Amino acid sequence: MSNKLLTSLILSGSLLLGASPVLADDCSSRGVLDEKFCDENNDLVADTPKDPSEWRDPSTLVFTYTPVEDPAVYKDAFHDFQEYLSEVTGKKVIYYTVHSNAAEVEAIRSGRLHIAGFSTGPTGYAVNLGGYVPIAVKGTADGFQGYNLITITRADSDIHTMEDLKGKVVAHTSASSNSGNLAPRALFPYVGVTPDKDYQVKYSGKHDQSIMGVLAGDYDAAPVASDVFHRMVDGGRIKEDDFRVIYTSAKFPTSAFGYAHNLHPDLVAKIKQAFDTFRFSESMQETFGGADRFYPVTYKEDWKVIRDIAHASGTAYTKTGLKQLAEADAAKAAKAAAKKQAMQSSN
Q1: 258: which residues sit within 8 A by CB, 6+ positions away?
Q2: Which N-terminal stretch is annotated as signal sequence (predicted)?
Q3: pLDDT by residue (tens digit) across 146-159?
Q4: Which residues contact 168 (CB under 8 A, 6 or more apart)?
């Protein structure tokens, strides 16, 4: 979806929110899910439609991964898995590049996307508004791969504790990001600093942009995902010695992998089989911090800490919240485009 189209959809009110939903008329319980979906088994994700005529069995499966860092890197990283998924399901699998969290949620809700990896924070929007069913995260035989919220500053800065952030400019990533925004707003007050009150928040757009912005001196500090930080170190994009870590949180689950709720049950069984039996290549293990497989999870149990953080930070996985996310995405895209055009003009 182009930035121009995304902005147009937001302004017209048609992005996810304005279209008349197809209601689950005979639904006895949908919990906090959108009215399009039903949750009669109370597992917090959308049930498979009762009417078999609503089950989808596409000849081509569309797969994507969350728009974090360089999308091309992850398109290549999941190539082997796409081939395996095609082998197990007997269907062609193509990669669909998304450039914002809101666009990814819109794609799963509209039916253009069948299987996806969503960042930790936006997973709740995908579940409640998109009918997304998370089933796995990256991990090993011993458990799921997690990450920490870390707060970084330059190694040569005068910031040594969280309270030193008072009066500073701190980069958060995006409104929906767990480690880049929601968790800091929920957790930082317990260590003596409140975002927007004690320090000025500026949204960078992505974790890597926060990290590079701190290094360049654009921001005094930034809360970021530890896995992104260490991938950048391992990839040679940054030097760990150039930074100081002044805060480390408890472990969170990484991005969720799952499928659209209305896929045919036989197809869902094959998709689950592919996730259960696929083993990462050496290059995938290097890309994903030593994870060698997809580890099974449930949204109800394993995403509870994330939902608690969202609740504590005043974030609701609702249509209004997603509209705000889309508006923020569009504003960031416009800012990035303007910066790029300015740089090209100066050259």
Answers
A1: 115, 116, 118, 132, 133, 134, 135, 136
A2: 1-24
A3: 889 999 999 999 99
A4: 159, 199, 200, 220, 221
Q: Which residue is it, tokens 């959108």?
A: 34
294 phi, psi to nearest 5 deg:
-95, 125
Do 207 and 88 have their domain in common?
Answer: no
67 pLDDT above the threshold of 60:
yes
Say if CB 211 and CB 254 are below 8 A apart.
Answer: no
Last residue of a domain, one of 220, 253, 286: 253
Do residues 238 and 215 make contact, with C-beta atoms less than 8 angstroms apart?
A: yes
Do 289 and 241 lie in one domain? The reply is no
Whole-model pTM: value is 0.72
Q: Are residues 157 and 188 in the same domain?
A: yes
Tokens of 78: 């999941």
Domain that holds residue 312: 3-144+254-338
Give Cα separations from 187 to 195, 223, 269, 282 (angstroms): 10, 11, 38, 36
Backbone dihedral region for residue 143 (phi beyond 0: left; psi -120 to 50: alpha; all else: beta):
left
Q: Would strands 92-95 and 243-253 be described as parallel, antiparallel, or unpaired?
A: unpaired
Convert 216-239 to b/e letters by CB count within 10 Å (16 or more is b). eeebbbbbbbbbbbebbbeeeebe
Report the CATH number that the domain containing residue 227 is assigned in CATH: 3.40.190.10
183-212 average pLDDT score: 95
